[in-house]
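Objective 1.3, modelling of assemblies. Example input:
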Amino acid sequence: MSDAIKTSGLWYRAGPEFELHDVSMSVPAGSVYGFLGPNGSGKTTTIRLLLGLHRVDRGDISLLDREVPKAMPEILQRTGYVPERPHLYPSLTVSEAVRYHGAFYEKWDESWTDELFDRFSLPPNQRVGKLSKGETGKLLMALALAQRPELLVLDEPTEGLDPVVRRDIMSALLDYVSEQGATVLISSHLVHELERFCNWVGLMDQGRLISELPMEQFKNGIKRLRIIDPPNHYDDSPFEILLREPVNGGVPGEMILVQGWHADMAEYFGGVGASLREVVDLDLEDGFVEMLRAFRVQATEG
Amino acid sequence: MFKVILETQWKWVRLPLLVATVAAFAIPVLSVQDAGRVGTRGLDPYLLLIDMTGWGVAYPLLAAGIGLLLAMTAWGPDHRQGHSYALSLPIPRWRFAMLRLGAGSVLLAMPIIGITAGSFAATAAAAIPVGLTAYPAALAIRFTLAAGLAYSVFFAISAGSTRTAGYILAGMSALIVAHTVFGLLPGVDLMGAILERLYDWPGPLAIFGGRWMLIDV
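Predicted structure (tokens):
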């Protein structure tokens, strides 16, 4: 199995205002894949399609080498899911919710569950609906981990949580991943949170997957370059040009946003009669924002 | 798996279901006691039958109410969060629905036991006038069938989406409008004809029609 998640040509209309366009994503097995995008970009809709909670209008999805939605029960047996909004029955107590949830999973591990609940200090007799936001987040993560999944699909699992709870949840997740080698798809719009532990990144905006690449390439390969005497066209460039725009403040030349940059590509500019004056490094958040901006400019220009 | 589903449904419905079970036991007992107070020299057959007919309305109403209650509580918590939890569990949807249906059916046993016990206790304690016969078993079986039918119908409706419920409401509204419009024509009683088809034998709701008599000729 090379890809734990694979979609091709996914289309889904979620209403008059929103549509997923031709989403083709590949989440390599064993990777921690950060699914980034602003609010309303289509991350949750994509995740719900992956898990068979919505039916696609067009396109194919496979999870763990099984076809969605045909093999859904088997896929879900091997997949832990933390939804964006808590979905457990609020009238059950924590221990009742655990017993209920665990009854559906073949690999449910009682002792591991107890361990997780001790680690998260969850009150067993508290009703789920009365838990704090942090406790609910911990409960959802504990339930997802206790089924010993091969794949974890986490939809903004730390959204709105305080830093202490966030750290607790993420460290439990990372411990599990390092022990079990599970694949993780984690969506967020908190770029810095994902930077630390993801090794793949997918960027979503306006219902489209605008980029998908290893984290290393994302962090090091996206640059802003200041070019003097730019040509009309950058023919046969060894990097991908995402955006061209004039330099602010009457400074000569232009700024280009590139993907797939490497230092030894600087020689290319001499060959097209231009010169590279400056290479601006971007951290993950800047890279994320710049890529979104480039995508939106391209979308506006058609 | 069935056990935890049964436990959760029991938790959601236990209070009203206990009330319904008590009511199911009490109705036959009260009906006979009430009839006993009417006659000054024991149970008067004629007055007893009138009383039984009056109380008889309570049985189908209770059966329908219990069916509705169990169906609504079976799906209510799932409806409230768009079924996302149920759909994310590793079980085929049809099987999950069957487990919910089965759990509700088990819970339905409580008021059925209540009405059976109440009917037998009431008729055993009463001095039934000559010429009349007690039908506790028949009443209990009829109640079981009616409650089961009501539960199945409401469960099927309740299992659907909001859109399905909308279609059903729209259908009923259209029926009322049609009844009003056609009611203006002489000799046309659309609603009456439909109700007749539904409630008269062999209509699908025939079990609810007719007389529900604990004691009859």
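Residues 163-180 of chain A form the longest helix (18 residues).
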